[in-house]
Amino acid sequence: MKVALFVIISVVSGIMAGEILSAMNLFIVEPTTDKAIGYELQRDILKGEPVNLSQIHDYRIWQKSGTFAAGAFIGTAYGSLLGIAYAFTRKYLPFTDDRKKAILLTGLLYLAVYLVPFSKYPANPPSVGEPQTISLRDHLYTTYQIASIAIAVVTGILFFKYRQVDKIKFIIPAVYILLIASIYFLWAPNPDKIITPMDTVNTFRALSGITQTMFFLLIGFFFGTLWKKFKPHESARVATV
Predict the structure, then answer these.
(1) What's the pLDDT tens digit per position in 151-189?
(2) Which of 125, 2, 15, 133 shows the shortest CA–CA distance to 69?
(3) Best label site of 90, 120, 204, 236, fewest CB within 10 Å?
(4) Alpha helices in the chain (DSSP H)
(5) Cα torsion at 220, 225, 231, 233 (round to 10°)?
(6) CB neighbours (10 Å) of residue 148?
(7) Which among 220, 237, 194 is positioned nearest to 103, based on CA atoms?
(8) Around Cβ 170, how many Cβ atoms within 10 Å?
(9) Mean pLDDT (whole number) for 89-118
(10) What are the residues whose beta carbons fall under 8 Å from the beta carbon of 232, sequence distance 6 or more?
(11) Could you tell me which residues come within 8 angstroms of residue 223 by beta carbon, excluding any fewer than 6 positions away?
């Protein structure tokens, strides 16, 4: 394994996908976020609560200005995760083409890291949720995500280890579905009532889902394409005279 090349491929593919995600969020998702925040401000004003519009405006500008830095950070994290997972699972994945292998593995990561947690705790705009429950909501989402990843890893290992056993390709997926269904009912629901109009919330969720799906597809495509081109799994050739 060419370690330096492996690291570069993982990081570069993640950053490229992360920057595209940032651009999509900035131009597609953020207008809906602004709309949701507008509803929240209207409610606060009607309640007679003090609202510093200038401070909120400056905060949103600062927040948006850091979008691409955040995208690079998130992309690097997921690119590294994908790279480590790919290094361990490449020889077990179907297909001979590294692009197909990478996209398949990214799809599995997408399922465990994003789609399963999203099914329990769908994305909400900032106007949904009380400040007092932020820690609780973060805890619920993070632990649910960790549980989803753990179930995927354990069932995946069992599947590959016993893949020659008759009917295992039906048993392991059934076990996976049973475990995912179990944690869905074990974890507490979102503690906050949604007051923001549901059309805005659903639009935000749909757009967030689209951008996240594109992010995972792109990171898998970039990673697989770079891996196929530079072949970091091949040992360096020693020149002979």
Answers:
(1) 999 999 999 888 888 888 899 999 999 999 999 999 999
(2) 15
(3) 236
(4) 3-24, 30-46, 53-65, 67-89, 98-109, 116-120, 134-161, 168-186, 198-230
(5) 10
(6) 23
(7) 220
(8) 9
(9) 95
(10) 1, 2, 3, 5, 6, 9
(11) 9, 10, 13, 14, 79, 82, 83, 86, 102, 106
**Model confidence over 220-230: pLDDT tens digits?**
999 999 999 99
Rg of the chain's alpha carbons, rounded to an integer?
21
Residue whose C-alpha is closest to residue 138's, from 72, 210, 192, 184: 192
Tokens of 211: 């951008």
Measure the CA–CA gap between 51 and 55, rounded to whole angstroms.
9
Residues in the chain: 241
Residues 79, 19 contacting (CB under 8 angstroms): no
